[in-house]
Amino acid sequence: MLGSVLEISTADDGSVIICPHGSADGGAELRLALVHLLRRVRPQILIVDLRDLPEPDPIYVGSVAAACCLGDDHQVLVVVRSPSGAVTDRLTAAGVPRQRVNTG
To answer: How confident is the model at residue 26 (pLDDT cuts 50, 70, 90)?
Structure first.
């Protein structure tokens, strides 16, 4: 995961934002962070910001889809910021509800 960085911050409204930067092959690192945030921190809203990853690998996409389901189980709304319509299509094909993806 050399070159991969996860930036995690808390917004003024209490929502948590996780933003991967750098290498697009850090999907396992993202998965572990998402599980920790959803099971232990449990914010009301978790924002996964993929805008710095124009081509996230399948592990990223699958991890985000699984996070949406896990978030539902723990009453955490997972919202995704997507860099493009093509990535949005990949996310929805993996099971992320389209209304949870924002390309803006």
So the answer is: low
